[in-house]
Design brief:
Blueprint lengths: L7 H8 L5 H13 L1 H20 L9 H16 L4 H9 L4 H8 L3 H9 L5 E4 L2 E9 L2 E8 L8 E3 L3 E7 L1 E3 L4 E3 L3 E4 L8 E2 L5 E7 L3 E3 L1 H10 L4
Antiparallel strand pairs: 1-2, 2-3, 3-10, 4-11, 5-8, 5-10, 6-7, 6-9
C-alpha cells in the first residue's frame, strides 16, 4: 500500500477557501476512503472555522434574506417531495445495472457528481473509459476506468496529476496503487498505469495541466496541437 496524504500546502489552501473545485473533490473523496486523510481534513476544517470567526461580520443588503428564501422555495417546488434522490433515480433509470452498481459503490462526493453527469463513460482507448466530473480553469477532475490488464498509453504531464484509486489496483511501472492509495505525478515522471488482472480499476484523477503522451501518440498529439 502506498499511503500518500495531500500535504500542508493543499490543506492550507483548503482552509483558506482557495482550493479549486477539482482539488476539493479529491480531498473529500480521499477523506471517504482514508481515516488519516479524514483526520487531516477535520483539522483543516477547524482551522477554516477559526479563520472565519476572526473575520469581521459583513452586513447583509436589504432584502437578502427574502431572496434566499425565495430561491429555496423555487428549488423545492422544482424537485418535488423526493428531493435530489429522485433526480438521481431518473438519470440512472436507463443505465445498465452493472455499470450503475460500479458508480453507486464509489465514495459519495464522486458518486453524486457522476450521477449528475448521467453516469456516462467516454471511450479513452482499448479497455479504458473516462468521465469528466468537474473542470475549473486548468484544473480537471475525471474518473478513469480500466478493464483488468488494460491501461492508458505511456505519458508525462505538463502539470501535476493526483490519482486516487477508488477500487481495484494498478501498477504504473514504478509502484502499485490499490484502493485508498494516491499517486502524484509531475512533469519529471513518465508512466503507464495498467490495471491488475481480475478486477476493474476505477480512479479519480485530478490534473492542473494536460497530459503529454510519449512515443507515436506524442507525435500525433504535437501534430494536432495538443490535447486537453
Amino acid at each position: 500500500m502506498t499511503e500518500l496524504l495531500l500535504g500542508d500546502e493543499i490543506l492550507s489552501a483548503y482552509a483558506a477557501g482557495a482550493l479549486s473545485g477539482p482539488m476539493r473533490l479529491l480531498l473529500d473523496a480521499h477523506s471517504e476512503v482514508s481515516a488519516e486523510a479524514a483526520r487531516e481534513r477535520a483539522q483543516a476544517d477547524a482551522v477554516a472555522g477559526l479563520m472565519l470567526e476572526a473575520e469581521p461580520p459583513a452586513p447583509l443588503r436589504a432584502g437578502a434574506l427574502d431572496d434566499v428564501l425565495a430561491i429555496i422555495d423555487a428549488e423545492e417546488a422544482g424537485i418535488g417531495e423526493a428531493g435530489p434522490a429522485a433526480k438521481h433515480q431518473q438519470r440512472a433509470a436507463g443505465l445498465a445495472s452493472k455499470a450503475l452498481d460500479e458508480i453507486l459503490k464509489l465514495p459519495a462526493p464522486v458518486r453524486d457528481l457522476a450521477l449528475e453527469r448521467g453516469a456516462g463513460w467516454s471511450f479513452g482507448g482499448p479497455g479504458v473509459r473516462t468521465m469528466e466530473l468537474l473542470r475549473e480553469g486548468p484544473a480537471k477532475a475525471e474518473l478513469i476506468r480500466l478493464d483488468p490488464g488494460q491501461g492508458v498509453p505511456r505519458h508525462t504531464h505538463d502539470g501535476r496529476e493526483f490519482t486516487l484509486v477508488l477500487c481495484g489496483a494498478y501498477h504504473d511501472g514504478h509502484a502499485r496503487y490499490g484502493a485508498g492509495d494516491m499517486a502524484v505525478a509531475d512533469p519529471d515522471l513518465t508512466h503507464r498505469p495498467v490495471a491488475e488482472e481480475g478486477e476493474v480499476c476505477i480512479a479519480l484523477a485530478v490534473t492542473d495541466g494536460p497530459l503529454s503522451f510519449t512515443g507515436p501518440l506524442g507525435w500525433v498529439q504535437r501534430a494536432l496541437g495538443g490535447m486537453n
